[in-house]
Amino acid sequence: MQTGGSTSDPDPDPRAILSRDHPAWTVEGETAVRTLEFPDFAGAVGFVVSVALLAERADHHPDIDIRWNRVTLRLTTHSAGALTRSDTALVAEIDELMDRRR
Question: What is the pLDDT of residues 49-62, one digit of tens each?
């Protein structure tokens, strides 16, 4: 899976990377958004804990909204005021996390 983190990436546009490699995510303004459903609240919170560990390691933190069994993640690089490779890299890790949970 391409994350868009390589400097030799021929297509460094984060929007193109999201569209091409991460179709479960949408773009709202300068933010990548994905909502996921889990069997119950515990499953949702367990997923959020896993995302928190990824985010800490990357030093890049999504906005997270938990509504019982639904989790909405919002990623943008606030300091740049835009989507960046930091966002697409974390999106790829989150997608890999979801693939492992299936």
Answer: 999 999 999 999 99
